[in-house]
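Run log // design_07
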């Protein structure tokens, strides 16, 4: 009404620009009706904050000249759209990424698939030009990051190469061409008769084989079943599991397809298939990314 002063209190009136040293810039320091407005607002902002997930990059050269770090968009979409987190790409090289600083910022880590194999010297084998390319800087970072993430209880999800990195980080070994082992199938992506990669992504990422899960294991509990079908796009695979690597699922030919890290204080799972391809519509992959997202929220509440 004319002549009456509003009794409402605006944010501006509380002078949010007054900050106390040691408090974050997002907190208002004024006291409102003795309730500690800064404390209330801080709790509210934390409740609204989306978890942040670090997604590792891989070395890539544009026009074979310009060094870049690359992350497949499907990894980012899976984190954002299914896990409900904010994906944060980070360089897969210790020259740029400090592990301690990274883990102080993120709530979880995704080790993505990549074309490059883990270098054989990481598990006591001689390299062979037939199994190139390698991404040695990513090896340096990912192996140490796997151990550090598990030690700090930060949720860790390894996909394809990421599963292999987790295995090597905990003392396991890999075989550069699983299909060369007796009784194993070809796990590489489908190709045309002329040897070229099949042009249709739906064919490339189609479910190719079954995976039998350990009854009562972590994956069986998350997925609510003991047998699933998955895609297959890898040559390298686990030969010997690391000391803390627990086998949770195997393909029909015996290839290790799902693992967890024993005694990890947080989510620490790896899959050999490309779960990031279609979690928006694939119930198996959706359940895995949702479980990862739930682990992010659970850890954030504890911190």
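design_07 sequence
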């Amino acid at each position: 009404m004319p002549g009456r002063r509003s009794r409402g209190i605006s944010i501006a009136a509380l002078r949010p620009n007054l900050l106390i040293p040691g408090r974050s810039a997002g907190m208002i320091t004024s006291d409102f009706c003795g309730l500690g407005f800064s404390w209330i607002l801080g709790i509210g902002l934390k409740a609204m904050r989306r978890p942040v997930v670090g997604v590792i990059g891989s070395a890539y050269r544009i026009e074979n000249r310009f060094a870049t770090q690359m992350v497949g968009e499907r990894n980012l979409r899976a984190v954002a759209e299914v896990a409900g987190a904010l994906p944060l790409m980070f360089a897969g090289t210790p020259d740029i990424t400090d592990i301690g600083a990274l883990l102080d910022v993120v709530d979880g880590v995704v080790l993505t698939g990549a074309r490059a194999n883990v270098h054989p010297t990481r598990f006591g084998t001689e390299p062979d030009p037939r199994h190139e390319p390698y991404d040695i800087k990513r090896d340096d970072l990912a192996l140490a990051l796997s151990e550090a993430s598990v030690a700090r209880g930060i949720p860790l999800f390894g996909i394809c190469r990421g599963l292999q990195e987790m295995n090597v980080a905990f003392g396991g070994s890999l075989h550069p061409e699983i299909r060369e082992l007796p009784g194993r199938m070809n796990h590489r992506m489908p190709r045309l008769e002329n040897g070229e990669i099949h042009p249709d992504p739906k064919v490339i990422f189609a479910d190719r084989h079954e995976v039998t899960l350990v009854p009562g294991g972590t994956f069986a509990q998350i997925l609510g079943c003991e047998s699933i079908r998955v895609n297959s796009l890898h040559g390298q695979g686990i030969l010997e599991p690391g000391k803390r690597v627990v086998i949770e699922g195997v393909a029909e030919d015996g290839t290790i397809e799902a693992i967890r890290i024993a005694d990890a204080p947080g989510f620490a799972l790896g899959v050999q298939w490309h779960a990031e391809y279609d979690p928006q519509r694939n119930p198996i992959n959706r359940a895995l990314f949702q479980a990862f997202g739930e682990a992010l929220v659970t850890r954030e509440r504890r911190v």
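The first strand starts at residue 52 and ends at 56.
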